[in-house]
Amino acid sequence: MYLLQIILSSLTLLHVDALYTCIKFVKTPFFTKDEFIDCFSNAQFFYNYIDVVKGSDIEFLPILEKSRELNFPQIIKYRALPDIPFIPSFMLSKINIHQKWLRETDTFVGEVRTKFFTFDLILSTTQKNGEIMMNMEGKMKEKISLLPDHTLDILIEQFGGIFTKIMNDTKSKN
């Protein structure tokens, strides 16, 4: 176990010249894009997210109360056991995760940094057949050489799954 951690920590991040990009969609429970904007502007979503990923040592910059709206740029730092495809979880320990979120009109842009990778996650909406869909566009910026590019696809799918879980949990409480 420790040998893999030594190997992983000795690998340097590679700057990805040709950005690997992936786009995923997930159905939302929203009826308008304004509801989507309200969801991602509300601190409660991010507190729920931290709960789902079992984050610890949480720091919000600026400080963020659960009942408040985010102040952009909003930085969220925490430690969590990563769910990185192709690396068994028993071989990993908690790592620092740093998210920086910006709002650009109706779009949210997050930069996610860990010691394994850095990627941008761009969240927006589109309407299909009367339903509001969340567009998730990921752009890999840096990664350790051990991880294949399509790891980003799985990470974006994981985010979509966490979003869906939070929305379902919120619905069942109401």
Per CATH, which architecture? 2-Layer Sandwich
Distance between the termini: 44 Å
| H/E series | HEEHHEEEEEEH
CATH topology: Alpha-D-Glucose-1,6-Bisphosphate, Chain A, domain 4
Give the DSSP E fraction (strand runs of 2 or more residues): 35-45%
Q: What name goes with the CATH superfamily?
A: START domain
How would you state the average pLDDT, rounded? 87
Salient structural properties:
eight-stranded antiparallel β-sheet; globular; 174 residues; 8 strands; 38% strand; alpha+beta; Alpha-D-Glucose-1,6-Bisphosphate, Chain A, domain 4
Can you describe this structure?
By secondary structure, the chain is an alpha+beta fold. It has one domain: START domain (Alpha-D-Glucose-1,6-Bisphosphate, Chain A, domain 4, 2-Layer Sandwich), CATH 3.30.530. It is built from 4 helices and 8 strands, in the order αββααββββββα. The chain starts with a helix and ends with a helix. 15% of the residues are buried. The model has no long low-confidence stretch (mean pLDDT 87).
Give a brief rundown of this model.
This protein is of the alpha+beta class and 174 residues long. 29% of the residues lie in helices and 38% in strands. The chain has a single domain, classed as START domain (Alpha-D-Glucose-1,6-Bisphosphate, Chain A, domain 4, 2-Layer Sandwich), CATH 3.30.530.
What is the strand and helix layout of this fold?
Layout: H1 2-10, E1 13-15, E2 21-27, H2 33-41, H3 43-52, E3 56-61, E4 74-80, E5 95-104, E6 107-113, E7 117-128, E8 131-144, H4 151-173
Antiparallel strand pairs: 1-8, 2-8, 3-4, 4-5, 5-6, 6-7, 7-8
